[in-house]
């Protein structure tokens, strides 16, 4: 079995849904993943993988976002637990995090993600989705 960051954070989806209340992300309509239709859980897993890949890509916008969070975490990898909204066509329309996430980081995340497109969500899926986004910290500059 591969042990990539996407795999590790994909396995955290159920824990993220379950722990969302403790992270200050609960709402009255939240349901645990074991009570959600399988297609909702699958969609959330796919969305997590896609968004994590976008954030860890080598393009300048992803690199700039990761550089912003580099000073805000001690761990080599960072997990942001967020709520995301998508429209019926799969366009990301909003991203929110808990109070523990720096407002500048959330602003940067919204700038980076809002308007990007995922696959269309399953019909009647409740939103927002609560997901854990895994980010690799930028490697330190090499000294030659």
Structure at a glance:
The chain is an alpha+beta fold.
Explain what the structure shows.
This protein is α+β, with helices and mostly antiparallel strands and 144 residues long. The chain has one domain (5-136). 38% of the residues lie in helices and 17% in strands. It has helices at 5-11, 13-19, 38-55, 60-70, 103-113; strands at 77-86, 92-97, 129-136. Strands 2-1-3 form a 3-stranded antiparallel beta sheet. Helix 1 runs antiparallel to helix 3. The longest helix is centred in the first third of the chain and has 18 residues, at 38-55.
List keywords for this structure.
38% helix; alpha+beta; 144 residues
User: What are the segments in which pLDDT stays under 50 over at least 5 consecutive residues?
Assistant: 1-26
**Percent in strands:** 15-25%
Name the shape in a single word: globular
Could you give the count of β-strands? 3
Q: Helicity, in percent?
A: 25-40%
Q: How far from one another are the termini?
A: 36 Å
Mean pLDDT score: 76
What topology, given as strand order, has the largest sheet?
Answer: 2-1-3
Cα Rg = 15 Å
Strand count, sense and closure of the main sheet? 3 strands, antiparallel
Order of helical and strand elements: HHHHEEHE
Alpha plus pi helix count:
5
Tally of discrete structural domains: 1
Structural class: alpha+beta
SSE inventory with pairings:
Layout: H1 5-11, H2 13-19, H3 38-55, H4 60-70, E1 77-86, E2 92-97, H5 103-113, E3 129-136
Antiparallel strand pairs: 1-2, 1-3
